[in-house]
Amino acid sequence: MKHIKVADLMTDEVVSVAPDTAFKDVAKLLAQYGVSGLPVLDDEDRVVGVVSQTDVLAHAAPAPHPVEETARPTGSPTAGDVMSTPAVTVHAEETAADAARLMTRRGIERLPVVDEEDRLVGIVTRRDLLRLFVRPDSEIRRRVTDEVLTEVLGVPTGDVDVHVVDGCVTLDGRIERRSQLPALLSLIEQLEGVVAVASHVRARTDDTLATHAGRARDAQAW
Does the entry feature the keyword Kinase, yes or no (predicted)? Predict the structure, then answer.
């Protein structure tokens, strides 16, 4: 089975900043590119943090209570001063579904994508991941037919009819063994873009009876 990877959806041209990038320059970049956050990279392109619109606004907002003059920091603030750390990242080879779950769990809009050495290689956003749920019916049907039925289960072409409407998959036909039926449904349900599966597939032979009988004989031998 081929699952959509983060690398398949990410944007590889990423606007980033260094820890010493001036606060005002960070704000300008966020506005210029219309993004909600920027990864902060060290000298080896490793992600050390993320500076978001929320971080910028929180720093720009006045403190609720006056701060003594002697307590004010000297110098202009930088990306390193306002960034959120540690950064939440995702690896390029992880599945898009895992990235979506991570975004939802952390309540964030975008994830820096890193390689095996944690160097930045791209960015993936909620909008990118939404593409998983608007996949054409024709593509879903092709994946069910070619990948699930033919490649994984070895079902001969034409034995099972596959119809897909608005992401709902309907199956009708026959497969060789009954033990294949749970795997068939499970694999299709895991495909990106599948909303529901209705199966009218029957098996030519019930190999589950032979399995149960074998287990019973083993138990009697003990």
Answer: no
